[in-house]
Amino acid sequence: MKNIIYSLSLTITLLFSCCKEEEPCSTCFENVVRCKINGKDWVSNCKSNDPLFGCWDLLCYYYFRSGNGFEIRANSSVDNNSININVFSANGGLINGLNNLASNEIGYSDFANSGNCSKYRRQDTNYFNNLVIEQIDTFNFIVIGSFSFKVHNECGDSTLITDGYFKTKFLF
């Protein structure tokens, strides 16, 4: 009886002493881009029936060794649309903190529309189009940030992207 009590107390002590908050898997990482498009929740995703080429939901590049150029392209095969943000090296490149986005640096595509109506590339100059970089980890190749912008297509329609957030690995 004494051995059972001793074993039970030892087991309970070990269980509770091993509970500390750690990263569940240091090599595991899930890319995420989410925002609201015209007030509707949106998240990048990829659903494909193509076994050869598949599809991609997110690509991110940050050229920290050559001019700090940055690009993030997020797609949704469920909603049939995509978001694109570029910060060109020629315009000064990406910086930590607030980055004002120029007209040629932002875009939205709605593939349900046809022709020029599917591409929203013209910046709304009455809206504060921005990208905020919260963290750039060049050791683990992770970038974290937020964004919002408003763009128009050639047909006169506008799209408002708000509450944007991303945490993703980047290629360089």
How is this structure best described in words?
It is a single chain. The protein has 1 helix and 11 strands, in the order αβββββββββββ. With about 170 residues, it is mostly beta strands. It has one domain. Strands 1, 2, 3, 4, 5, 6, 7, 8, 9, 10 and 11 form an 11-stranded antiparallel sheet that branches. About 5% of the residues have low confidence.
Topology:
Blueprint: H1 2-17, E1 32-37, E2 40-43, E3 58-63, E4 69-76, E5 81-87, E6 97-100, E7 106-110, E8 119-123, E9 130-137, E10 142-153, E11 158-169
Antiparallel strand pairs: 1-2, 1-11, 3-4, 4-5, 5-7, 6-9, 7-8, 8-10, 9-10, 10-11
pLDDT averaged residue by residue? 85
> How many individual domains?
1
Strand content bin: 35-45%
As a whole number of angstroms, the C-alpha radius of gyration is: 22 Å
Overall helicity:
under 10%
Give a quick account of the main beta sheet: strands, pairing sense, barrel closure. 11 strands, antiparallel
Uncertain regions spanning at least 5 consecutive residues = 18-23
Keywords:
172 residues; mainly beta; 11 strands
Write a brief structural summary.
Helix content is 9%, strand content 45%. With 172 residues, the chain is mostly beta strands. Strands 1, 2, 3, 4, 5, 6, 7, 8, 9, 10 and 11 form an 11-stranded antiparallel beta sheet that branches.
